[in-house]
Specification:
Blueprint: H1 2-24, H2 32-49, E1 53-57, E2 65-69, H3 76-83, E3 88-92, H4 101-107, E4 111-113, H5 120-133, E5 137-140, H6 161-166, E6 170-178, H7 196-205, E7 210-215, H8 226-242
Parallel strand pairs: 1-7, 2-5, 2-6, 3-4, 3-5
Antiparallel strand pairs: 6-7
Helix pairs in contact: 1-2, 1-4, 1-7, 2-3
């Protein structure tokens, strides 16, 4: 019974992904407000098709913002876009190899970083700083990889330099996936050698999954050391997860 439910959900998600690709071909002709609304609708529907109940607390900070989030799952971007669809993300280049999803993520304006190349971080810092100066909101996952969800991994401070250099406010987004049996659901774990296909199957097989997206008040970055800022944001997210 559970396998049949998972297959049905994945079939519907696959069709939704194809619809997203069709919509993406028209993106250049859409006004900014239309693009943002399409992203909100599309992301929210992905989560609903997989059986997730979505809860949102707080609101996106207006104007140029660096959004910093804990990293739990391949669902994180969809979850944040359900709450803040105007965010452009920095993502590791590995996602370009994901079937369908990689194409969609790339065409949504994502900035990619080659984490194995130390010098690539500086290139991305400059790109993020330029986007912030243009008034955009850029989302980053400073853990650099996915964790189990209950406690954020240590934050890398490199990309936060873009906010410090441009005196851009930084907003923390807290993601918590849950189910009736656990405050932090194991069904969404995307750890170690787990493949995308394996993780998608676990999510699609789960019952009564939910995700809570909490947008905390923005903090100032001007005249702040990036490492101190990273530590402060880590503590804010950890405290929210414990609350």
């Amino acid at each position: 019974m559970r396998a049949a439910l998972a297959l049905w959900r994945l079939l519907r998600v696959s069709l939704h992904l194809l619809h997203g690709m069709a919509v993406m071909t028209r993106f250049p002709r859409l006004a900014e407000a239309e693009r943002v609304e399409r992203i909100r609708w599309w992301s929210g529907k992905v989560l609903r098709l997989l059986g997730l109940e979505v809860g949102i607390s707080g609101a996106p900070h207006p104007g140029a913002t660096l959004l910093v989030a804990n990293h739990v799952s391949w669902l994180d971007i969809a979850a944040i876009h359900a709450a803040a669809p105007h965010v452009r993300f920095v993502s590791k280049a590995d996602v370009l190899r994901w079937p369908l999803l990689g194409w969609l993520i790339r065409n949504a304006g994502t900035l990619f970083i080659e984490r194995e190349r130390k010098r690539d971080a500086m290139r991305v810092v400059h790109a993020v700083a330029a986007a912030l100066q243009q008034g955009q909101t850029i989302g980053v996952f400073p853990e650099g990889t996915t964790g189990a969800g209950a406690e954020p991994l240590p934050f890398h401070a490199n990309l936060l330099q873009a906010a410090v250099a441009t005196a851009t406010p930084v907003q923390a987004a807290v993601l918590r996936f849950h189910d009736p049996h656990a405050r932090f659901s194991e069904a969404v774990h995307f750890l170690g050698e787990t493949t995308l296909v394996q993780s998608m199957w676990r999510v699609a097989s789960a019952r009564d999954l939910g995700v809570r997206i909490t947008l905390l008040p923005a903090v100032e970055s001007a005249a702040t050391d990036r490492r101190a800022l990273a530590s402060h944001l880590h503590d804010l997210i950890a405290a929210s997860l414990r609350d």
